[in-house]
Amino acid sequence: MINKNWARWIQASLTTYFKQVLETDNSLVFYVEALSREKSNAKNVTDWVEQRWNGPFIKEHSRNLFCLDIEINFVVNSVVNRQDTYTHKQIVGIVMSSLVNNISVFKFGDGVDDDEDVLLGCLQLRVDNKSGIFTNYFGRTQDAVEIEQSTVEASYYMYLKT
Hints:
By secondary structure, this protein is an alpha+beta fold. The protein is 19% helix and 49% strand.
């Protein structure tokens, strides 16, 4: 049976992980799509990363064995830096390196089914002929706006037995 908490636990775990790696460890401004942004700092931000994800796409492979597929997407935004033309690519590289082979999913929350010390499972990076870590560089999407943009994307999966 599909657990109503899986999507929430996945989002909480992804947010916790990427916030640690991108914001705390690498001093990048990190946003999660649909969550509010800090308005007071917006004028001073020159580089930022926004994360979103699709899924889970759930398939029951056999009785009570589920495969959850997740697509993780980042948009990397940088004000054009005339002093260091590689700033944007360096940030893209940091985001790419954050997409490790395994990301732990914990039962974060304060409900009766939640326990942040309990590991639900691990999202595993999908690497095959059609999957991996992909980047797309868009450059400056508008002449009047000096912002470079790129996307970084990866697919993950996790098996859960209920």
